[in-house]
């Protein structure tokens, strides 16, 4: 090692903060419009997660104001639990701080996203982040922070006690951006956020203009997902080493039972027999080869049950339909879901709605609205596995014979979302996910086909009734004329009762 | 045939329809089934008649409503004709329908609906003042009295025009008064009809000449039958020498399947004089080979119940062995007057 260091002149390590700044497009900060969107998104996701922890109806207030020389101030306030004061600087001021391996469905993964936004603001607008938070432990505190990019450490500019009217957190970031250009995306993001979190109420306003409120479609706080231990199939070499480092003196058998879900004493014994490692062996005495072989075997062994799905949080039929209906006026919609499944040990589900309504653009394939862990995805649609699965289907077979105003809302939820990049905009291709997504889309497609058939049928029936009615009018006109008597009063009720069965579709 | 006056029959239909609608029911009419399985040959009448089977036309049925509406309108149209003393051709009726916003796909459809009305009322369309477009003609030493409005009691002499008189509503309904004719001679083609007038053959044979012009319209058949009955005159039929010509004669004799619902049109005693297959041979007439369609028609006729008689089967057999056919005009080969001078005398004596 020393040899290499000496021989490569000018080579030095960079901090994660610097790395991400240099590759900021990966994290969704490639241009100023996207940066506004990504910043807002990180803040809103954290707020919604905080409210979920508090099990309260999220009331989030967003204000974006233009400042001189193309600089914007983005401010997001929530009514969540507030943050533990001593952790605020680290949580906001250090890239990859929150390295929790928490096995439950969450929107954000505290760590990269918000820190990236702060970093972006610091560099483009030379401005610190302001964080005002208050938790149940006492009067609130306000911080202004900067990040030391090279050292990857927070710099506390200012910190003092300041009470807040209620518990919760307000974060304000100032960065370079163009509100006019970003506005449309921002509003779309806010609206779609209330589809994925139908209970959330979001108030937003731009440049001091009057604010608008969306959401609150459902009044029920969704059940909080249950945290669970990781599934053994999740354990790659890195994770396994870290977990082992926490309890070096534990016997391998007990370590497996304590650390993973779906592993009881019997399963642990069977598994170790499969690997060929003595169950009584202590962690510290395992060789590197042992650990490598363990990691491989954990993924290969077929004796583990499927991962626990209680750590997932689907929107659910009622709430999902309610929110879609609240935002779009539909003439018809149908919900469908797949039972939970797993990709490489991570439990996941897909659920979706197919809707027909005049607000959607007419097309040969449905317009797709993507959601992952209750977060709407707005960018990089073309690479996404959801998009590809929708495009791959021949929608002519599913009732779209002529361009129709159809939309698909698909929600993917997992303890881990396989994003293609740190910008968290599109889902990577995983065979297991693809299978379930395709299954879901097909089932929604079949509903659409039935709907289209019924609609076609009722159109035909209406036409038949119209034709019948015209013909019967001739009978009611010339019959009496032939008899030289007055025509009977209206006969529409007769015609209607004749067609009642058919038109009530 | 109904004893009612046509106008009352129509009115009664209108009343039945109106009554049903007033009571909130969809009107239904019963029509004799005109399907081939319900057409029988009545040996006694020597004509086709409809059997007992009926079909319902139900206005609540999506498949029936169109023809029900058309039938109602045709009945109304017929009554308007009678009320205003007008007549109409089948074609005229078809075009009139547009003004009443009643749709027919083609004249064939409106013609069928008129046939429905005949079935429903048991009366021929002529009773409602509806006639086919084409007119056949009549010529001969007969006096008749018109009964049509405006001409009541006026006498008409059927030798009035050297072209013959067209047979329309007026002649069909006229009453035969007197004649010195001894026979009725009906010919298929207009050419032959003219020749028999020009050569004064009608005088020589003392014949009332009728031009059939293919399958004759019912008004022509009605008039022939009326003259046949009123003066007790024999009827002779002179057509082309092929299966089609032979069948024209047969329909005049025994009636057609198409008009099985109408009675009073047939002349069972009428006689087909030719051109028979034997004539083609005996007179060495210029002839053409029969087409496959002709031969197929022969096969059909051979199985037809109207052709069970020995004479008919003999004609068919001779046609089949001859495999040739000849038109009436074929006689021209022997000069223009051969028919009058030789052939007809041979046949009519």
The proportion of residues forming helix of chain A, as a percent range, comes to 25-40%
Q: Residue ranges of chain A: pLDDT <50 for 5 or more in a row? A: 1-7
State Rg of chain B.
22 Å
What is the 3D form of chain A? globular
Strand-residue fraction of chain A? Answer: 15-25%
The proportion of residues in beta strands of chain B is: 15-25%
Which structural class do the helices and strands of chain B define?
alpha/beta
Distance between the termini of chain A: 77 Å
Radius of gyration of chain A: 29 Å
Q: For the largest beta sheet of chain A, what order do the strands appear in spatially?
A: 5-4-3-6-2-1-7-8
Summarize, please.
The complex is a heterodimer of chains A (505) and B (349). Chain A is α+β, with helices and mostly antiparallel strands and 505 residues long. Chain A contains 14 helices and 14 strands.
Q: How would you explain this protein's 3D organization?
A:
- By secondary structure, chain A is α+β, with helices and mostly antiparallel strands.
- Chain A has helices at residues 2-7, 16-22, 32-54, 88-93, 113-125, 179-196, 237-246, 252-259, 265-275, 288-300, 317-327, 385-392, 431-483, 492-503; strands spanning 59-67, 71-77, 129-134, 141-148, 153-161, 168-176, 201-206, 212-215, 332-337, 341-343, 346-356, 367-372, 375-377, 406-414.
- Chain A has 14 helices and 14 strands.
- In chain A, the strands form two sheets. Chain A has an eight-stranded mixed beta sheet.
- In chain A, a hairpin with a 2-residue loop joins β12 (367-372) and β13 (375-377).
- The radius of gyration of chain A is 29 Å and the shape is globular.
- Mean pLDDT of chain A is 87; it is low at 1-7.
- By secondary structure, chain B is an alpha/beta fold.
- Chain B has helices spanning 6-22, 65-83, 90-99, 107-121, 169-173, 190-198, 201-205, 218-231, 243-254, 277-282, 292-303, 310-322, 338-348; strands at residues 28-32, 39-42, 47-50, 54-58, 88-89, 130-131, 137-139, 142-145, 155-157, 165-166, 175-179, 183-187, 207-211, 235-238, 271-274, 288-289, 324-325.
- In chain B, β2 (39-42) and β3 form a beta hairpin.
- In chain B, α1 packs across α2 and α11 runs antiparallel to α12 (310-322).
């Amino acid at each position: 090692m020393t040899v290499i260091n000496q021989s490569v002149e000018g080579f030095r390590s960079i901090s994660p903060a610097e790395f991400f700044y240099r590759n900021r497009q990966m994290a969704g900060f490639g241009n100023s419009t996207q940066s506004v969107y990504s910043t807002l998104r990180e803040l809103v996701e954290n707020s919604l997660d905080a409210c979920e922890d508090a099990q309260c109806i999220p009331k989030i207030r967003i204000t974006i104001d233009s400042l001189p020389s193309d600089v914007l101030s983005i401010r997001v306030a929530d009514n969540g639990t507030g943050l533990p004061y001593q952790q605020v600087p680290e949580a906001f001021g250090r890239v990859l701080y929150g390295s929790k391996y928490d096995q439950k469905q969450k929107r954000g993964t505290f760590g990269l996203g918000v820190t990236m936004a702060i970093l972006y603001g610091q560099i483009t607008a030379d401005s610190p982040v302001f964080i005002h938070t208050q938790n149940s432990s006492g009067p609130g505190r306000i911080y202004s922070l900067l990040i030391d990019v090279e050292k990857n450490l927070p710099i506390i500019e200012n910190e003092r006690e300041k009470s807040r009217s209620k518990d919760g957190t307000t974060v304000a970031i100032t960065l370079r951006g163009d509100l006019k250009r970003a506005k449309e995306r921002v509003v779309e993001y806010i609206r779609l956020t209330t589809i994925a979190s139908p209970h959330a109420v979001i108030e937003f306003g731009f440049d001091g203009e009057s604010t608008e409120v969306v959401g609150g479609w459902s009044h029920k706080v969704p059940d909080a997902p249950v945290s669970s231990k990781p599934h053994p199939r999740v354990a790659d070499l890195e994770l396994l080493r870290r977990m082992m480092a926490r309890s070096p003196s534990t016997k391998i058998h007990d370590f497996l039972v304590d650390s993973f879900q779906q592993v009881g004493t019997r399963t642990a014994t069977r598994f170790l027999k499969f690997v060929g490692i003595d169950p009584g062996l202590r962690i510290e005495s395992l060789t590197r080869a042992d650990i490598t072989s363990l990691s491989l075997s954990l993924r290969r062994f077929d004796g583990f049950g499927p991962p626990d799905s209680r750590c997932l949080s689907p929107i659910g039929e009622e709430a999902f339909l309610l929110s879609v209906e609240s935002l779009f006026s539909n003439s018809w919609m149908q919900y469908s879901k797949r039972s939970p499944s797993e990709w490489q040990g991570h439990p996941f589900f897909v659920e979706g709605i197919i809707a027909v309504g005049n607000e959607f653009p007419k097309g040969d394939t449905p317009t797709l609205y993507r959601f992952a862990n209750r977060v709407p995805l707005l960018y990089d649609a073309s690479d996404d596995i959801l998009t590809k699965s929708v495009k791959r289907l021949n929608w002519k077979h599913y009732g779209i014979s002529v361009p129709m105003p159809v939309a698909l809302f698909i929600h993917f939820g997992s303890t881990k979302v396989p994003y293609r990049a740190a910008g968290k905009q599109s889902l990577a291709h995983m065979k297991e996910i693809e299978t379930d997504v395709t299954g879901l889309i097909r089932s929604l497609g079949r509903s659409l086909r039935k709907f289209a058939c019924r609609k076609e049928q009722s159109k035909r029936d209406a036409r038949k009734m119209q034709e019948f009615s015209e013909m019967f009018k001739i009978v009611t006109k010339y019959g009496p004329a032939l008899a030289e008597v007055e025509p009977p009063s209206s006969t529409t009720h007769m015609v209607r009762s004749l067609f009642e069965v058919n038109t009530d579709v | 045939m109904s004893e009612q006056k046509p106008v009352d029959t129509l009115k009664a239909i209108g009343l039945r329809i109106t009554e049903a609608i007033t009571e909130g029911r969809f009107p239904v009419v019963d029509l004799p089934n005109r399907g081939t399985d319900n057409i029988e040959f009545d040996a006694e009448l020597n004509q086709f008649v409809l059997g007992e089977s009926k079909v319902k036309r139900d206005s609540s049925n999506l498949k029936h409503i169109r023809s029900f509406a058309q039938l109602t309108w045709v009945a109304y149209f017929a009554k308007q004709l009678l009320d205003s003393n007008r007549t109409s051709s089948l074609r005229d009726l078809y075009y009139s329908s547009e003004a009443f916003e009643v749709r027919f796909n083609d004249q064939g459809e409106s013609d069928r609906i008129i046939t429905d009305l005949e079935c429903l009322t048991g009366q021929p369309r002529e009773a409602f003042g509806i006639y086919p477009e084409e007119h056949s003609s009549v010529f001969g030493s007969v006096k008749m009295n018109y009964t049509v409005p405006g001409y009541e009691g006026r006498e008409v002499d059927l030798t009035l025009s050297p072209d013959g008189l067209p047979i329309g509503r007026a002649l069909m309904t006229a009453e035969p008064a007197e004649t010195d004719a001894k026979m009725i001679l009906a010919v298929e083609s207009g050419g032959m009809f003219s020749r028999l007038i020009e050569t004064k053959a009608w005088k020589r044979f003392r014949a009332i000449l009728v031009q059939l012009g293919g399958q004759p319209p019912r008004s022509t058949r009605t008039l022939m039958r009326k003259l046949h009955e009123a003066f007790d005159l024999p009827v002779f039929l002179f057509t082309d020498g092929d299966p089609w010509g032979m069948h024209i004669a047969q329909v005049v004799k025994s009636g057609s399947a198409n008009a099985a619902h109408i009675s009073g049109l047939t002349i069972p005693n009428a006689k087909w004089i030719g051109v028979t297959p034997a004539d083609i041979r005996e007179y060495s007439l210029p002839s053409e080979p029969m087409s496959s369609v002709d031969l197929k028609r022969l096969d059909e006729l051979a199985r037809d119940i109207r052709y069970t008689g020995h004479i008919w089967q003999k004609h068919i057999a001779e046609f089949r062995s001859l495999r040739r056919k000849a038109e009436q005009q074929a006689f021209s080969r022997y000069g223009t007057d051969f028919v009058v001078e030789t052939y007809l005398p041979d046949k009519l004596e």
